Amino acid sequence: MRKGCSMKCLSDEVCFSSVIVGLARNSKPMDALSCFVEMRRSGSALIDGYGKCGLLGNARGVFDELEMELNIVGWNAVMAGHAQQGEHGNVIELFTLMEERGMVPDEYSFLAILTAFYNAGLVEETEIWFRRMTEEYSLEPCLEHYTCLVGALGKARRLEEAERIALSMPFKPDAALWRVLLSKCAYHVNMDIAWRMSDRLLHINPMDDSAYVILANAYASAGRWDEVREVWKRMKDKKVRKEGGKSWIETQGEVHVFLAGDRRHERADEIYAKLADLMEEIEKLGYVPVWAEMLHEVEEKEKKKALWYHSEKLALAFGLLNGTAPPGKALRIVKNLRICRDCHEAFKYISRLIEREIIVRDVNRYHRFLNGSCNCGDQW
């Protein structure tokens, strides 16, 4: 990719953006950033790339320097970066400033606003800005705008209303929308709607393992183990394979990959010992395991081991053991799936214990753990 970044042909924003999106999804985000320096002339793409890597300080630095030269694409890019992390105040501030500069907001401007309020768990604000989009700016919402609205309503436990909107909107719901609503049903343990959402998701893609896993999680949270077993049986009968959890962390220019319960790393003994120490220390601070994340009935000792050894916890232990980031700097982890509630709870306590920020990019969003809390407000 480094060679590609220096090629003369990469001269337009579309090409730059394609490269940046690919780099942002790469498991070596810091390596990706070295290419961004060579893309300096395309400020919008550079802002977009920094934002997708979760480096808002860098994105804002480029934006502040080039503000007077940027078009609507650049403004939308910096707003989208803040929106990913639920920083609605910054998004609205930028939106207001953009209008003062004489720019006309477009659909992407409002997608950033709705995403910010949705990620922050602010349902009333999401509804207000959804209406403003059509009533004051004469912009028609697209599927992504509706997904934000449905997700925000789901977070607020307004699940029936969210389902009605999904079924009545002028677009055919896609898998992403049903998955969002299924996750909210699971969080609120509303099994009636969760079952319907799972069926709709499987109607779109019968091999979608997330439909089974999220539904099984919901049943486990409700203590309905017979239904959990039925979900697993149904999954097995359909020959659907559950995607395994995998986490990445970069240290000293090398990416280390961890799987749940994996002991193949050359420093496995040290990693597991470090993790055991961390878990024992946060238990003293008040951490209580989220047993509902266990999808099988096992003894408490086995439950604890299974929860302790999730891939993101192993990556974090290795990062602390290996001095991945200088003291005071954030530890950055990427995960291929949604971070589970137990790891989320543990990371809040660990951030308080080690007095450092921990940033986790899971399949849904960025989580910034600091001083015992997360910027997602415990809903994701």
UniProtKB/TrEMBL annotation:
Provide the residue intervals of the PPR repeats.
12-46, 71-105, 208-242
InterPro entries registered for this protein in UniProt: DYW_dom, E2_motif, E_motif, PPR_At4g14850-like_plant, PPR_rpt, TPR-like_helical_dom_sf
Q: Which residues form the DYW domain?
A: 286-380
Q: Which UniProt keywords apply?
A: Repeat
- What is a biological process (GO) this protein takes part in? RNA modification
Q: Name one GO molecular function term.
A: zinc ion binding
Q: Which family does it belong to?
A: Belongs to the PPR family. PCMP-H subfamily.
Protein known as: Pentatricopeptide repeat-containing protein
Its source organism is Nicotiana attenuata
